Amino acid sequence: MSVHSHIITANATSEGEDLMSGDARAHAYRNVIITAATAGLAGLLFGYDTGVIAGALLQITPDFGLGSFESGLVVGAVPLGAVLGAWIASSRSDKYGRRTLILTSGIIFIIGAIVAAISPGTWVLVASRVVIGVAIGVASAVAPVYISEIAPPDIRGRLVTFFQLAVTIGILVAYLVGLAFADSNEGWRWMLGLGAVPALALVIGIIRLPSSPRWLLMVGREDDAREALQRVRTEGPEAIELEIKEIESSMSIHEGSWRDLLAPAVKAALVVGIGLAILQQITGINTVIYYAPTIIQETGIDSDASSILASLGVGIVNVLMTVVALRLLDTRGRREMLFVGVSGISISLFILGLAFLIGADSTFATVMAIGSLMLFVSSFAISLGPIFWLLNAEIYPLSVRSKAASAGTMTNWFFNFLVSLTFLPLIDLLSQTGAFWFYGAIGLVTLWFCWKYVPETKGRSLEQINDIFERRAR
Fold this sequence. Notes:
The chain is an all-alpha fold. It has a single domain (22-209, 252-473), classed as Up-down Bundle (Growth Hormone, Chain: A), CATH 1.20.1250. It contains 18 helices and no strands. It has helices at 22-64, 68-96, 98-117, 122-150, 156-180, 187-193, 196-206, 213-218, 222-232, 237-250, 264-282, 285-298, 304-328, 334-358, 363-381, 384-394, 401-453, 462-473. The longest helix is centred in the last third of the chain and has 53 residues, at 401-453. It is globular and about 70 Å long. The two termini are 38 Å apart. 55% of the residues are buried.
């Protein structure tokens, strides 16, 4: 993987403008990778909790005697809390900094995971999962923004996708933990409590990272911003000074307010960010992740362990295809990956609906259902999965980036909550076939939306991306 450096001609080598040595460039490159990967651990919290509740719910439901609504509430408590967490991040991120909020989210998650593990009843469990949701909402609003502000333009796509990769790894780890405790008495307590481990890793790792240079410039700490850029840039001092000037020229003289989101260029960007936030959820991804074991059981696999094991295959595919996305987002571009991936999402959902139409007593239908789930997850992992978080972190002007990104994140988590709460009732209303065909039709709407509204941002600086929406607003 190559990183393009600015070439400074011999007659421009005044003091402080010389090129960095090869060792210094390699060190800076390692720094930016480590920084993005560590911040991306915030996605591990998101992924672990998303995946672990799928297996835990199989035990919690009989232990607490939950009905369909209560089961949906246990699942939906996290996205509901995440809406609140994203709202908190919208104002606190600019005040305290991206790094501080990621650190805080890890601490809150640890507390929530421990309380969830020792919950004596349904309402304490729901309340603890709301707390977990607050932590995830803060992390998911701030971590992608932090990575996008640290990353060089030519590798920003793959670095921000570290967040989504961590999500998929978290889901896979959660499925493994669920499999390990599937036959244990009250094994769900271990499943939920072990979520504190990745949160602790995030807390320890984030302490060593630099603050966002763009946030440092926002609060008037230019020397600290210069030092932060020197840690994560492979170019020499002259290029860093040019980047600082470019950032400063794009900054408003004041911190953006919610009213500033009504500016024409920001509204044009919000159409993309909020539109993708909604469509990412209502194409049904979390019906698959939250309820994968339940879905597989309904196709004819009886035991909890067997259904979780089948779900494990879905988790492995999810991780592998997100790694593929890491390689392609900065070469093939965002739009192409969206068109390919969303097409696969729609096709897989129509096949999944057909599998339920054939019937649960058919081995062929079971194989078709599992295969379509894997196609769905593969398609999502190279498109809506990483690309929503990437675009939501890179398309807004600096002065309103925290608030606009949080608005997109809040919308995403609200529709996550809505879909998770209504999935089982939707099946009661439309049947499994009708529900998945409904999600498949939404996938076709998503294709049109991407063609109509989503710009290509590959290889552009954050300030150049802002110019795209300025031109659209004229």
